[in-house]
Design goal:
N-utilizing Substance Protein B Homolog, Chain A; 2 domains; 68% helix; elongated
Length: 313
């Protein structure tokens, strides 16, 4: 499920925490990292079930039949469209979804103001009003509409704020979470059972990659910082920003210990990390040091990469 960029961010945060800890307990850092990675999956489920919780709220709190005034036909049709009769029943029958709704990390029903705000906004969307014109939309049509709801949530400041209250690092997780939600919803087929991702899925190597990267970076930190220092002429090691040193250490760890990750990929990913998490000039400095390191490692035949085109920058 997770892209490697987000995993690198999580390892960067865990290594930073480890180096700040007086005890420098690798077990504690590994536990922190594992919880952080698992939390991404939990946040995925929290976002995924939101529209279903919203539908439940609409059905129970916004039914026009419960109102005392005469309801216009347009309002009744919009209500019916947002109830998504058919797709909702199909989705809540799925074991993984039912489990996520019965034991949620966050109970959306305790935030009726948010549910009401999103409901009012969805009512005004052209895509909602278009669906309301269809008398009996099929489940597949409703599933496509569900993807549109997620697109709306991705751009919603109100929903963003709610997720930031739940997860302080939501800004890091938002793009990959919604990307995987889009993929998941697009793959839904009525005749097939739907399984939500888990951090323990055998095909997902996120946990092993993150754990190995953190462990190796912590183990070789002093050696790698010495190598970085030697390739930073005019810069005393103590003058290099802590975040820059950690980013370059992780890049060096990856270059030397992960033979199937291309050099280009490693360099690009950690330059992006420097741009987002360090000083304004960091990416230029980090790029210069890593470029020298790659040249040195190649000249010493220490950069062992497997596969065509893996070495050249």
């Amino acid at each position: 499920m997770l892209n490697r960029r987000l995993i690198r961010v999580k390892v960067f945060q865990a290594l930073y925490s480890y180096l700040q800890d007086d005890d420098q307990s690798l077990n504690k850092a590994q536990s922190y990292l594992a919880d952080s990675v698992d939390g991404i999956y939990q946040n995925f489920k929290t976002v995924f079930i939101f529209p279903l919780e919203l539908i439940h709220y609409i059905r129970t709190k916004q039914n026009p039949a419960d109102f005392k005034y005469i309801v216009e036909e347009k309002d009744a049709r919009i209500y019916k469209a947002l109830c998504m009769e058919g797709a909702y029943e199909f989705l809540v029958r799925q074991d993984d979804i039912r489990s996520a709704m019965e034991r949620p990390a966050h109970n959306w029903q305790k935030d009726p103001d948010l549910l009401n705000t999103i409901y009012r906004q969805l009512r005004e969307l052209p895509i909602t009003q278009k669906l309301a014109e269809v008398d009996q939309p099929t489940v597949s049509v409703q599933i496509k509409f569900l993807n549109k709801i997620f697109e709306f949530l991705k751009d919603s400041e109100v929903f963003d704020h709610a997720m930031e209250e739940i997860e302080m690092l939501w800004e890091d997780e938002k793009v990959p979470v919604f990307k995987f939600i889009r993929t998941t919803v697009s793959s839904i087929k009525e005749e097939e059972e739907l399984h939500l991702p888990s951090p323990h899925d055998k095909e997902d190597d996120s946990r092993s990659f993150s754990s190995d990267l953190l462990k190796l970076a912590a183990r070789h930190y002093n050696d790698y910082t010495a190598l970085i220092d030697a390739n930073s002429p005019g810069w005393d090691k103590d003058r290099i920003a802590k975040t820059d040193m950690i980013i370059m250490t992780l890049a060096l760890t990856e270059l030397l210990n992960f033979p199937y990750i291309p050099v280009k990929v490693t360099l690009n990913e950690y330059l992006e990390l420097a741009k987002n998490y360090s000083t304004p000039q960091s990416s230029k400095f980090v790029n210069g040091v890593l470029d020298k390191l790659v040249k040195q490692l190649k000249s010493e035949n220490r950069l062992e990469k497997k596969g065509r085109g893996m070495i050249e920058k």
